[in-house]
């Protein structure tokens, strides 16, 4: 109905997502309708992701297949050199590769090109209507049980549109129009769909109508690393698995530290690491940090690395991009 009344089909939000990006990320079959009305099927957002990147990342098989059948390129790279095929799990990856070949697509990687505002058909709304939307409807959120609470806010498990989610309720004093504008500018930076060890923010609610600003992410099957370590799940964490967790976390944090501009500072602890077997996803959620103690009986190599990382002088602590190769060597042994 909106399209028939003149709505611009390739209009972008603050993250440069088009309606087709959003429909693909949520698995809506409305993608076919958008394509029918000439939506740019290979439009790229601020991270260089196309709608097909989103559909592959979230495992929406039918949507991904529809996109490829309609001309979505399986080998177009985002800003981080990743093709949609790189985001898909093996069965979907093979199915899309086979379909693309039948349609005559080349599987040679297409390098990312920043074509923003260079003759593209993408348009931003002049009056900023799309940008001013509150985002997710607070009334659609179902808060289940509280996971954690600290001075920065509350962490809840809940449901939204049939999906298990994590809800972060931010405690911000004296919510003003200025803070509301800053929030609108900042939270899209957390919508990172381009690294396997970073759990992206799905969306946000403004205040009002929400009682406080809210951001939501997907719930991972095993919950947080804290749940795995302290609450008796059936996930066995031996030394090999511990190194894998550490490596996944370090890779995610190293990636976050490469972003420009940097994401606002967030504290990292076991409650902010979400576990989805077999990978760990450090989620960009602000939580209080804790200084751990070194338990007895662990590898001397791990013990040495922990001591270096906990140096009282922050300037002497290694950066995450220095930690990654050390952990990779430990994992190979």
Question: What are the defining features of this structure?
Answer:
single chain; 333 residues; alpha+beta; Serine Threonine Protein Phosphatase 5, Tetratricopeptide repeat; Phosphorylase Kinase, domain 1; Transferase(Phosphotransferase), domain 1; 3 domains; two-stranded antiparallel ribbon; 11 helices; Kinase-like_dom_sf; magnesium ion binding; ANK repeat
Describe the structure.
The structure is a single chain. With 333 residues, the chain is an alpha+beta fold. It has 3 domains: 2-103, Serine Threonine Protein Phosphatase 5, Tetratricopeptide repeat, CATH 1.25.40; 138-218, 2-Layer Sandwich (Phosphorylase Kinase, domain 1); 223-332, Orthogonal Bundle (Transferase(Phosphotransferase), domain 1), CATH 1.10.510.10. Helices cover 31% and strands 13% of the residues. The protein contains 11 helices and 7 strands. The chain has helices at 19-25, 31-36, 51-57, 61-69, 84-87, 90-102, 177-186, 225-230, 239-256, 300-309, 320-332; strands spanning 142-150, 153-160, 163-170, 201-205, 214-218, 273-276, 279-282. The strands form 2 sheets. The chain has a 5-stranded antiparallel beta sheet with strand order 1-2-3-5-4, with no helix packed on it. Strand 4 (201-205) and strand 5 (214-218) form a beta hairpin. Helix 1 runs parallel beside helix 3 (51-57). The longest helix has 18 residues, at 239-256. The protein is globular. The model is unreliable at 116-134 and 278-290 (pLDDT under 50). Keywords: ANK repeat. One of its GO terms (cellular component) is stress fiber. Residues 141-333 form the Protein kinase domain. Belongs to the protein kinase superfamily. TKL Ser/Thr protein kinase family. GO terms for molecular function: ATP binding; integrin binding; magnesium ion binding; protein kinase binding; protein serine/threonine kinase activity.
């Amino acid at each position: 109905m909106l399209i028939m009344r003149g709505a611009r089909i390739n209009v972008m939000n603050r993250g440069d997502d088009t309606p087709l990006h959003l429909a693909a990320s949520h698995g809506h079959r409305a993608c076919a309708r958008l394509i029918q009305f000439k939506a740019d099927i290979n439009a790229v957002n601020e991270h260089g992701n196309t709608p097909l990147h989103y559909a592959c990342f979230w495992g929406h098989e039918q949507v991904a297949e529809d996109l490829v059948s309609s001309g979505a390129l399986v080998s177009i790279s985002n800003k981080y050199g990743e093709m949609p095929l790189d985001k898909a799990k093996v069965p979907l990856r093979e199915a899309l590769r086979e379909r693309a070949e039948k349609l005559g697509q080349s599987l040679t990687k297409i390098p990312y090109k920043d074509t923003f505002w260079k003759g593209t058909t993408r348009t931003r709304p002049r009056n900023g209507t799309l940008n001013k939307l509150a985002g997710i409807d607070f009334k659609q959120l179902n808060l289940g049980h509280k996971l954690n609470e600290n001075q920065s806010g509350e962490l809840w498990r809940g449901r939204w549109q049939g999906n298990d989610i994590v809800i972060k309720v931010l405690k911000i004093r004296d919510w003003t129009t200025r803070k509301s504008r800053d929030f609108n500018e900042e939270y899209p930076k957390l919508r990172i769909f381009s690294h396997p060890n970073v759990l992206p923010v799905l969306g946000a609610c403004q205040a009002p109508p929400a009682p406080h600003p809210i951001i939501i992410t997907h719930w991972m099957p095993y919950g947080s690393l804290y749940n795995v370590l302290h609450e008796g799940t059936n996930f066995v964490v031996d030394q090999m698995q511990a190194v894998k967790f550490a490596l996944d976390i370090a890779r995610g944090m190293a990636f976050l530290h490469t972003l420009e501009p940097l994401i606002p500072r967030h504290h990292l602890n076991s409650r902010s690491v979400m576990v989805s077997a077999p990978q760990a996803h450090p989620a960009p959620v602000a939580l209080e940090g804790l200084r751990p103690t070194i338990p007895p009986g662990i590898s001397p190599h791990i013990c040495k690395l922990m001591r270096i990382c906990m140096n009282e002088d922050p300037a002497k602590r290694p950066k995450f991009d220095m930690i990654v190769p050390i952990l990779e060597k430990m994992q190979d042994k």
